[in-house]
């Protein structure tokens, strides 16, 4: 394709400043198409009284938007009318049509929700409110405001799916009429549509809307690429017209011979889907050979499978290209038989076989529910789509329960909108649809959050597998749980569903809060003990103590005593500073330091270093107390604690160079720590060994370590090519320093070990 032909085709897009003239010329036609009379002609499925209600809503919206114009120069009211027209095409009820007409009145014209309730009823007002962005609130960034508005809309949608149907109609009309908009704004809206709204349409089975939103977004994001592909498809359409007509004629004749009544129609891939396939497979246009296909609509389910036999007798099927989405529907309710056959010219052609009800769901998705309610036909497929849509909407509420941050919520929802799916089975043969790349952990949380929280292992097809294993369609997955098991932070790196990710994060946040609160209380009590005072009671019924805590939290900027303790435990506030402020309050109220309590306070050896009392470490890694990975302290080591800002207490060995550098830079954040008397777990430490290469070296070392009652948890041999000697780095699980010394002594007796020592950072 030449540059001039492309430039000629795309020139109007570049000359947006001159478009108002052409818009003005065609304004009358556009207004006529978007007039209320055009909408009224679509509302015959509503009763007379309902049509009167729609007319009242139109008059209200027309008055509200009087004097307001779109970027194209057309009256603004043409947009709500067009949105309502799209909703009428889906046969939505009167409340949804009214909401579509008034969907911008709260946001743009200052109409209150109370006013809408009084005039049109609470259900319609709730729909309009769910469609209203939170522009009146202040957010730190535009992205944060968008995320919060999106969360509001999705939560309204989870209560009433009509919210998202009206929103998708709104977005579709905006995308169709975006030529008059500034290119930068148009590209931002197109990107948002491609990332969020098109996947939602797909998730709800609205395939017509999904395809059009994708193509319109592609047109604004990559106009030159779309123009080039469009011309290539037009040329290809001309080349393949003969073969398409021949295949269609032969297929119709084959079905007539079998006396099966069918509707055969051609199907063409959208420009965007061709582009995406070229990108994914790194192919040129010539390599995309399934641009054209055929859709066959039959009367009954039995005829779907009979039709498959007719097609396979007519043309040879391509092995491995048959999919039965009737027996196992897609997650959005889509049902069809897919088969790829070899055409008379040797090119592959895809056929989709479905019933009329399945076809309605395939094109309209969850909106088919209203189509069948209006038409009084067999709506079993539409009911299935509605049920699956409701399941996904319920999952949004589950994610919301665990996620208070709007940006994080949007991230979880985007993950859940991943379109590809694998279909796996429970041991009782129940089918679950999960995103491609999902793991047994995703499967566990899809069953129930309690199953996910207590997962310890999994079996796939009766074979034990790692929890990070990717599931494949047809796998039978069994989850093994234990009462004491808890979610692992590492699971966040392997899960693919928003539900699993939000549940894990919610659990870890709660755990962090509980541990940090307990640590903060311990640290403040010990710091206050150094002042000769005890912590006031936490009993809310103790008025005097409650007044002290209220004054202290107002000084610290916290909302409650518990929040203050969490901040101390996480290192956001220094316990000794809070303790001195609390001591001053208590002394003002007449409390005197107690000599016995003062004697219990512990002080550091170095008087120049502030002390916050001794914290005892029992070795259990948690959210608030962690062992530093640089030096990996073990019982018997001299240790010290660094209170990171918002990171909890990090325990280093006293001789750790990393810890020493932190001490020089931030002395006031160091506190005294000591090992607890009772330690009921093992600890990992790193050792380095220089060994002589030879047969069985690793086996000899492993036997020696096992003989010393220890375990190797990790082994690293580096990337250097093999030579006479090799340096090994091992993580070994030990009880304490004495146990480590025994292991090193045993290893030094191994003939092939030349040198071995504990690693020091």
What does this structure look like?
- This protein is of the alpha+beta class and about 750 residues long.
- It has five domains: about 5-225, Hypothetical protein af1432 (Orthogonal Bundle), CATH 1.10.3210.10; about 235-380, 2-Layer Sandwich (Beta Polymerase, domain 2); about 420-495, Ubiquitin-like (UB roll), CATH 3.10.20.30; about 505-675, no CATH class; about 685-760, ACT domain (Alpha-Beta Plaits, 2-Layer Sandwich).
- Helix content is about 50%, strand content about 15%.
- The chain has 31 helices and 20 strands.
- Strands 1-2-5-4-3 form a five-stranded mixed beta sheet. A four-stranded mixed beta sheet has the order 12-14-13-15.
- Strand 13 and strand 14 (about 650-655) form a beta hairpin.
- Helix 7 packs across helix 10 (about 120-130), helix 7 crosses helix 12 (about 160-175) and helix 15 packs across helix 16 (about 270-280).
- The longest helix has about 35 residues, at about 225-255.
- It is globular and about 95 Å long.
- The chain starts with a helix and ends with a strand.
- Residues about 1-35, about 135-140, about 370-380 and about 600-610 have low confidence and may be disordered.
Tell me which CATH architecture of the largest domain applies here. Orthogonal Bundle
Write down the CATH class of the largest domain.
Answer: Mainly Alpha
For the biggest β-sheet, the strand order reads 1-2-5-4-3
How would you state the average pLDDT, rounded?
A: 77
Low-confidence stretches: 1-33, 134-141, 369-379, 602-612
Structural class: alpha+beta
CATH superfamily of the largest domain: Hypothetical protein af1432
């Amino acid at each position: 394709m030449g540059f001039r032909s492309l430039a000629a085709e795309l020139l109007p897009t570049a000359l947006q400043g001159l478009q108002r003239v052409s818009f003005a010329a065609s304004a009358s036609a556009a207004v006529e198409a978007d007039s209320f009379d055009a909408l009224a002609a679509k509302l015959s499925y509503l009763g007379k009284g309902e049509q009167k209600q729609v007319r009242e809503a139109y008059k209200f919206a027309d008055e509200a938007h009087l004097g307001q114009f779109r970027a194209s120069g057309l009256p603004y009211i043409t947009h709500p009318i067009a949105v309502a027209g799209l909703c009428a095409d889906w046969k939505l009820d009167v409340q949804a049509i009214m909401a579509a007409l008034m969907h911008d009145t709260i946001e743009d014209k200052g109409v209150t929700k109370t006013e809408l309730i009084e005039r049109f009823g609470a259900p319609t007002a709730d729909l309009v409110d769910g469609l209203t962005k939170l522009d009146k609130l202040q957010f730190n960034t535009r992205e944060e405001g968008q995320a919060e508005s999106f969360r509001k809309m999705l939560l309204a949608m989870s209560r009433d799916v009509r919210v998202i149907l009206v929103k998708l109609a709104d977005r579709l009309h905006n995308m169709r009429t975006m030529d008059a908009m500034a290119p930068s704004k148009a590209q931002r809206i197109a990107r948002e549509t491609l990332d969020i709204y098109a996947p939602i349409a797909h998730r709800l089975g609205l395939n017509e809307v999904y395809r059009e939103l994708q193509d319109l977004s592609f047109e604004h994001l990559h106009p030159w690429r779309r123009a080039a592909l469009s011309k290539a498809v037009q040329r290809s359409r001309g080349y393949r017209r003969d073969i398409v007509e021949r295949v269609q004629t032969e297929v119709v004749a084959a079905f007539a011979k079998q006396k099966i009544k069918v509707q055969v129609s051609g199907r063409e891939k959208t420009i965007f889907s061709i582009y995406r396939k070229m990108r994914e497979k790194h192919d040129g246009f010539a390599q995309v050979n399934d641009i054209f296909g055929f859709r066959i609509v039959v009367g009954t389910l039995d005829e779907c499978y009979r039709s498959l036999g007719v097609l396979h007798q007519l043309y040879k099927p391509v092995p491995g290209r048959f999919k039965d989405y009737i027996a196992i529907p897609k997650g959005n309710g889509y049902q069809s038989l897919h088969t790829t056959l070899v055409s008379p010219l040797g090119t592959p052609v895809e056929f989709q076989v479905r019933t009329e009800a399945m076809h309605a769901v395939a094109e309209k998705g969850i909106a088919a529910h209203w189509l069948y309610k209006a038409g009084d036909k067999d709506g079993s497929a539409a009911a299935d789509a509605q049920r699956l849509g409701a399941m996904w909407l319920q999952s949004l509420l589950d994610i919301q329960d665990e996620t208070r941050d709007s940006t994080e919520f949007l991230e979880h929802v985007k993950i859940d909108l991943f379109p590809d799916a694998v279909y796996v089975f429970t041991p009782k043969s129940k089918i679950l649809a999960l995103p491609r790349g999902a793991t047994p952990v995703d499967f566990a949380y899809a069953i129930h959050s309690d199953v996910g929280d207590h997962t310890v292992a999994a079996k796939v097809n009766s074979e034990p597998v790692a929890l990070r294993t990717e599931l494949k369609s047809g796998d039978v997955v069994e989850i093994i749980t234990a009462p004491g098991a808890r979610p692992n932070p590492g699971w966040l790196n392997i899960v693919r569903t928003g539900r699993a990710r939000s549940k894990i994060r919610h659990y870890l946040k709660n755990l962090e809060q509980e541990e940090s609160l307990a640590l903060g209380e311990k640290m403040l009590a010990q710091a206050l003990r150094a002042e000769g005072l005890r912590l006031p009671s936490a009993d809310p019924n103790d008025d005097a103590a409650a007044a002290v805590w209220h004054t202290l939290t107002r000084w610290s900027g916290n909302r409650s005593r518990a929040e203050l303790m969490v901040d101390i435990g996480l290192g956001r506030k220094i316990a000794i500073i809070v303790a001195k402020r609390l001591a001053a309050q208590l002394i003002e109220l007449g409390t005197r330091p107690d000599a016995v309590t003062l004697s219990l306070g512990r002080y550091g050896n170095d008087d120049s270093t502030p002390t916050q009392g001794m914290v005892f470490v029992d070795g259990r890694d948690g959210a608030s107390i962690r062992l530093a990975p640089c030096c990996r302290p073990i019982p018997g080591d001299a240790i010290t604690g660094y209170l990171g800002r918002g990171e909890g207490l990090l325990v280093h060995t006293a001789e750790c160079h990393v810890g020493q550098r932190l001490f020089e830079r931030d002395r006031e954040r160091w506190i005294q720590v000591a090992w607890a008397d009772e330690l009921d777990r093992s600890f990992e430490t790193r050792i380095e060994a220089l060994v002589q290469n030879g047969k069985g070296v690793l086996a000899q070392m492993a036997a020696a370590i096992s003989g010393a009652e220890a375990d190797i948890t990790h082994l690293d041999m580096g990337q250097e090519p093999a030579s006479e000697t090799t340096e090994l780095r091992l993580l070994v699980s030990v009880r304490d320093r004495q146990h480590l010394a025994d292991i090193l002594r045993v290893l030094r007796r191994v003939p092939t070990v030349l040198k071995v020592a504990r690693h020091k950072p």
